[in-house]
UniProtKB/TrEMBL annotation, chains A, B:
UniProt xrefs under InterPro entries: Aminotrans_IV, Aminotrans_IV_CS, Aminotransferase-like, B_amino_transII, BCAT-like_C, BCAT-like_N, BCAT_family
Molecular function as annotated in GO: branched-chain-amino-acid transaminase activity
Modification sites for N6-(pyridoxal phosphate)lysine: 197
Protein task: Acts on leucine, isoleucine and valine.
UniProt family annotation: Belongs to the class-IV pyridoxal-phosphate-dependent aminotransferase family.
Source organism phylogeny: Bacteria, Pseudomonadati, Bacteroidota, Flavobacteriia, Flavobacteriales
Protein's name in the database: Branched-chain-amino-acid aminotransferase
Length: 355, 355
């Protein structure tokens, strides 16, 4: 895959860079942004000329539909720098496709490939100093689209804004993660928008997650809302369970996001001759496995952390601690995936794309 | 109930009013706004001094959490003018309470009563010329709150903005409304945010509604997402079914908004000695009643239209036309409620509040 730059784009560079003020060692995730952003407006059926401009607040009407009806979608991806100072993306075609799937589900216009991918390439070329070398360092990429059209009437907008902002990230360490299995609250409905990266899916989880935090759990593993018997995914990660040397993960569905990390780990695990089964995983199976000692690992999979090992879970008032393994599969897979992403190992899958 | 104005508020009036440019006869709902808006910011746990200022776009950071995680809630209410030129609200305490319930569910700060109610009173005093006399005319009130706090990390913001904007509305006529009964898509999950007026709930409906529109249906009546057997509510209205001279409506739940119009109509209908049953209504019951001739009316109930009669519905590919009645209960109830709202009839319920 080769990304073409956009022929017709306005570029207005920042007069000074903020990069000197940034301490790349103490970055907290998602709070520092680079000098520039990509902006492209959609008006009455047409995408206008995109521009790269200094990162800055912008004006928006109080009646913009994003505020009232939540027409907003996003993607999350990363740029990595190799030892030769080249910048790489990991399966960006997957994020682009998913972005437009989310757009369709939220009745928003699809973003053309040259705006999304070409714009991203040009933005990254300008910001390449913000991509730091070294495993763990990366530049987090946040493409998003909001409804800027006005009016407090519940119908799709006719004006939209697509933007890409960039945030430098260092190695993600979340501490020990304990999770709560959802028994009452839910993340997504059958026939709902759970499979879209729609803004509203995330704020919907804040309150239940706050309650979980108060009980000492960092995250929730969501279950199906109808029966709360099937394990689905975490707030921003798909989940894997290793039981009796087999890796299990739920099939994606209308309720579950089709994570890029998830599907890459499945392929990697298969290549490593690890048994992988993609099928609904029941809460009762998990509890039983924890009780009879066959549960080996649980881990989340997502772009931010790649792999996030979970040390224990609570279900129906009982806490189940996972064994401490010397050689967890979670970390082995993370290492393999990172090696591909940072170009330290041959990319036999053809997942990496040079900027 | 008496509303107190806010002691400490900044008021900056617009130098000229736009009111002369507005044709109040041809207003389309939700597209014209008055001269002023109320703004109140929340920063690190504290609500700041509110202000009333000229209606205008404002600056916001591209990483504001409302754009990425959809932390946004709203209310919808109306101001009415009586024959003595006094301005009245209808059960504003219900909207205030519901707003703060939505805030809690979306992990947002609750808005103090003096900011919400007192601010609204002062704003309406300034904008009283925008409330036109005559049944059907009203000033639609849109209080809303958005997360202005920055950062692309999925967690509640620490900065928020509460605003009230106002939009003049004339008598709502939607034409003949045919509805589709949802068989696949859904509006809300068990344990989800359906009962909150959260922005994300509305955009989630746009795509299925677009598909319904293409089939000739203006709205969808949502069913429970787990089984699609129970009739729940429409996009911005609760729904009533009149079968064999009894009015049925679903009980409110985690999935269904507790509409002010719905509960007022229930009380009014009871006073008028109409049989009302609040209980789950099955799709099969509706179809059966349509088939055996006992289905008399279906109507939506919400602030915008008060009552919206439905002329027919489609379910599983079959269209069921409703009888054309000389004296529909829907319109009788609408008339009664309107008379209370416009102070044309005694308000024995104590629902109306003078500004
Ligand atoms: C709900 C949800 N599930 C799973 C994921 C993981 O997806 P990916 O691996 O593509 O980052 C994310 C994050 O993007 C997410 O938001
Ligand atoms: C989902 C939903 N249901 C029902 C209603 C009707 O509620 P109310 O009568 O309070 O306007 C609304 C509108 O506010 C709504 O958004």
């Amino acid at each position: 895959m080769e990304i073409k730059t956009i022929a017709d784009i306005d570029i207005k560079l920042a007069s000074v860079s903020k990069i000197k003020d940034v301490d790349f060692e103490t970055l907290s995730f998602g709070n520092v942004f680079t000098d520039h952003m990509l902006v492209c407006d959609y008006e009455n059926g047409v995408w206008k000329k995109p521009s790269i401009e200094p990162y800055a607040p912008f004006m928006i009407d109080p009646s913009a539909k994003v505020f009232h009806y939540g027409q907003a979608i996003f993607e999350g991806m990363k740029a990595y720098k190799d030892e030769q100072d080249d910048v790489w993306l990991f399966r960006p075609d997957q994020n682009y496709e998913r972005f437009n799937k989310s757009a369709v589900r939220m009745a928003m216009p699809e973003v053309p490939e040259d705006v999304f991918m070409g714009g991203l390439k040009q933005l990254l070329e300008i910001e390449k100093d913000w991509v730091k070398k070294g495993k763990g360092s990366s530049l987090y990429i946040r493409p998003f689209m909001i409804a800027t059209g006005k009016g407090v009437v519940a119908a799709p907008a006719v004006f939209y804004r697509f933007m890409i902002i960039l945030s430098p990230a260092k190695s993600y360490y979340s501490g020990e993660v304990k999770v709560l299995i959802a028994e009452h609250f839910s993340r997504a409905a059958n026939g709902g928008i759970g499979a879209a990266k729609a803004a509203g899916n995330y704020s919907a989880q804040f309150y239940p997650t706050k309650l979980a935090n108060e009980k000492g759990y960092q995250q929730i593993i969501w279950t199906d809302d109808a029966t709360h018997t099937k394990l689905e995914e975490a707030g921003t990660m798909n989940v894997f369970f290793r039981i009796n040397d087999t890796l299990y993960t739920a099939p994606t569905s209308e309720r579950i996001l089709d994570g890029v990390t998830r599907k890459s780990l499945i392929d990697l695990a298969k290549r490593e001759n690890i048994n992988v089964e993609v099928r609904p995983v029941l809460v009762t199976e998990l509890v039983e496995a924890a009780q009879n000692g066959t549960l080996q690992e649980i881990f989340g999979a997502g772009t931010a952390a790649v792999v996030n090992p979970i040390v224990g879970f609570e279900y129906q008032g009982t806490y189940y601690e996972l064994p401490k393994l010397d050689q967890p599969v979670a970390l082995a897979l993370k290492e393999k995936l990172n090696n591909i992403q940072y170009k330290l190992e041959e990319d036999t899958f053809g997942w990496t794309v040079k900027i």
